[in-house]
Amino acid sequence: MATIEVGILGATGAVGQQFIALMANHPWFKVTWLGASERSAGKAYRDASAWRLPTPLPDDVASLQVNAAAPGSAPQLMFSGLDSSVAGEIEAAFAQAGHVVVSNSRNHRMEPDVPLLIPEVNADHLALLKAQCATRGWKGAIVTNPNCVVVVVAMALAPLRQFGLRSAMITSLQAISGAGYPGVASWDILGNVIPFIGGGEEEKIETETNKILGALRANTVANHPVTVSAAVTRVPVHNGHTASMSVALEQRPDAGALIDAWRSFRGKPQDMDLPSAPPSPIVYLNEPNRPQPALDVNRDGGMTVSIGRLRRCPILDYKFVALGHNTIRGAAGAAILNAELMHREGLLGGGA
Ligand SMILES: NC(=O)c1ccc[n+]([C@@H]2O[C@H](COP(=O)([O-])OP(=O)(O)OC[C@H]3O[C@@H](n4cnc5c(N)ncnc54)[C@H](OP(=O)(O)O)[C@@H]3O)[C@@H](O)[C@H]2O)c1
Prior knowledge:
The chain is an alpha/beta fold. The protein has helices at residues 14-22, 45-48, 59-62, 84-96, 119-122, 128-136, 148-157, 186-189, 201-212, 255-263, 268-271, 293-296, 328-344, and strands at residues 4-9, 29-36, 66-68, 77-80, 100-103, 141-144, 165-174, 215-217, 220-222, 227-234, 241-249, 282-285, 305-312, 318-324. β8 (215-217) and β9 (220-222) form a beta hairpin. The longest helix is centred in the last third of the chain and has 17 residues, at 328-344. The structure holds NADP nicotinamide-adenine-dinucleotide phosphate. The site of NADP nicotinamide-adenine-dinucleotide phosphate has 30 residues, from α1, α4 and α13.
């Protein structure tokens, strides 16, 4: 099939770099355009970015010139890893100019006509794009993926909806790469735990989860009624957000039923055999000391959520631990999977 040219907004950042690495050998998408701030514009990518990934920067991308983040010469399909202080306006300008923007940033996620997508969980929410096109009159469109820890939480909870999911208490232990580069100062994070992450991290877990798990009704999403309470921490881990979770369920399933629900969980990416789809989006590990970021974060290219330590909770019903790769399943890999699904569903032409 013909290659689809793609651009990356925020290409020099932690998420932007992950986009480049993940698309280095992509069967459909080829990176041909890079955008970042005025600080980087006009420079060759190799000079504008501090490449932090263990895989080499691809030569063809290294020599691309970085553009200012404005529509004009960019391809139709744009991925965005823009800083949230500027993502709102820039992404809207691209969508208005006819681009399909597949974004990681928080700015548009909770708008009622914007899909907040995890393709295994709520692929049908792409139907919101009709309303988006009608209300905004854009020639293009915006589709978002969740916050990096919300992906882990929502994927762990999605298979539990069948048991009458009522509430969830979550404590996260989030990697430093979640703060971008250079992120948290080494002085602050080494040998430490910081019980706060700015930008409304806890509120995102307590609201985005309900939209993602919600049901599509008449071109809007009816939020799932689960009550979520979150406490977030930053820990000295390179990659991988861990969530220690307790859940209350209306039914009384035994532990085996929960494990079966996780292990058998599949969605459209697996049915359609999308290039970035992991064979099993959720893996349950029996070992009593798993999942661990150092051992489990890169499972299936970083696209699988690992769960373990399921046991009874004396306050709610069950407790367990979930882990996912924050810049892959929680960011660039998530957005690429969204775009793969949209391509297969014929939605990359925008709203026009
Ligand atoms: N890191 C994660 O795990 C993660 C996960 C999910 C979602 N996200 C979200 O993804 C986005 C990017 O995160 P990150 O960790 O990659 O951040 P980052 O490393 O700080 O990168 C930010 C990017 O935005 C660009 N930028 C900053 N100001 C700009 C401006 N005025 N105009 C145009 N571009 C500008 C930067 O370009 P310059 O280099 O030129 O300054 C850089 O490319 C954020 O919205 C974040 O919340 C991050």
